[in-house]
Write a structure and sequence with these properties.
By secondary structure, this protein is of the alpha/beta class. The chain is built from 9 helices and 11 strands. The protein is globular. One of its GO terms (cellular component) is cytoplasm.
């Protein structure tokens, strides 16, 4: 392909990806690499929205295991995604990529509130929009946020960037040497085989709205552009029958 196959995308970046090899916090080199990859795609006139997780700072489920009320723990996780979103915004604007952060929880001094029509207008003007604070509700993951926002802004695909694996496998490839990597799956197969690509709410939302998902590794520089240009890397999950 000599031109992008997608015009508007949602990039889902896990909090763990931002931690790099450290496993916790924000790794400056990793977040700069992600920003550079996003810039490559923006320069192709592709409209980019990003949903960032918060697992490098706080995970709601882990907090619940420590005895914290689930709703409270999830709200803490939403605040972690805001911190990551601001860090990514800064990294993008340092390389001259105009960016807006929109939060599902009002915090006017920090970022814009999430307004669908405003988000779409930013995208049309070539700005990267980062959706922070999840859906604004506890018990919903940032995977579900990515699916919901993709449906709302009519994105053509969700790109799920991973920092440890390069696609979807039949088992954990780090624990099972015989694990098979899939090139293509359907959402029903993901749900029925409990492959853990996304949580069931997010998978169902993508399936119901016919939003394809590409799971790939973000650690190799240029991979976001490769996916946008139609190169077959990682695993694609679709609504229809897998080939």
């Amino acid at each position: 392909m000599d031109h992008p196959v997608y015009k508007r995308i949602v990039l889902k970046v896990s909090g763990e990806s931002l931690a790099g090899q450290n496993g916790y916090g924000i790794d400056a080199a990793m977040i700069s690499s992600i920003a550079e990859q996003v810039k490559e795609v923006v320069e192709l006139n592709v409209e980019v929205a990003i949903v960032v997780g918060g697992g490098n700072i706080w995970r709601g489920i882990a907090g619940t295991a420590k005895g914290i009320d689930r709703a409270t723990a999830d709200y803490m996780g939403m605040l972690a995604t805001v911190m990551n979103s601001l860090a990514l915004q800064d990294a993008l604007e340092q390389i001259d990529v105009p960016t807006r952060v929109q939060t599902s929880i009002a915090m006017q001094q920090i970022a814009e509130p999430y307004i669908r029509r405003r988000a779409i207008r930013h995208l049309e003007k070539g700005r990267v929009v980062i959706f922070a604070a999840g859906t604004g509700n506890p018990f919903f993951s940032t995977d579900t946020t990515a699916a919901l926002r993709a449906a709302e802004i009519e994105a053509e695909v969700i790109l799920m960037a991973k920092n440890k694996v390069d696609g979807v496998y039949s088992a954990d490839p780090f624990k099972d040497a015989s694990a098979e990597k899939f090139e293509q799956l359907t959402y029903l197969e993901v749900l029925n085989r409990n492959l853990g690509v996304m949580d069931s709410t997010a998978s169902s939302l993508c399936m119901d709205n016919n939003i394809p998902l590409v799971v790939f590794s973000i650690t190799e520089s240029g991979n976001i552009k490769r996916v946008v240009m139609g190169e077959k890397i990682g695993t694609i999950v679709v609504k229809g029958s897998a080939s």
